[in-house]
Amino acid sequence: MTEPSQNHESDQIPCDPLSEINRRLADLGVEEEDLIERFTLGEGSGGQKINKTHSCVQLRHIGLNIDIRCQDSRSRSRNRLLARERLLEKIEELNQQHSLAKKRRRAAQRAKHRKPGAAAKKRHREAKTRHSRKKDLRRKPSQD
């Protein structure tokens, strides 16, 4: 008798890559209602087979205004998968840029409110002293 496997690697790997991509999109807050998916005629090289079938996938995210067009494969299902992968990559890239910009703004804000160090204070004092001497030279000589 064989025992059923408890933690098999194949149990953890999703058998449907589209469901995995949809799960990752859902983790980013993208819902299926936010997507408009259209299938259009292909174009370009590939001849009659490409030009007659509706295998080109146009995927649009309404909220983010991102358009993805994919006709890499002759298969519509493969193009659907590739279009969603590209959308996922694009959204992750936007999130990364947004978080990087947020970090930069926070760092700039901290630097703005940071008190000057000893070296900066010394430079400022020396600049004030130089300016004061320059003004002293503009005065008329005293008649002592």
TrEMBL record:
Residue ranges annotated for the Prokaryotic-type class I peptide chain release factors domain, each copy included: 29-138
Biased composition (Basic residues): 100-138
Keyword annotations from UniProtKB, A to Z: Transit peptide
GO molecular function terms attached to this record: translation release factor activity
A Pfam family recorded for this sequence: RF-1
Cross-referenced InterPro entries: Mito_Transl_Release_Factor (IPR052405), Pep_chain_release_fac_I (IPR000352), Pep_chain_release_fac_I_sf (IPR045853)
Highest rank taxon of the organism: Bacteria
Name the record gives this protein: Peptide chain release factor-like protein
Keyword Membrane annotated: no
Renumbered residue ranges of the record's region Disordered: 93-144
Family indicated by similarity: Belongs to the prokaryotic/mitochondrial release factor family.
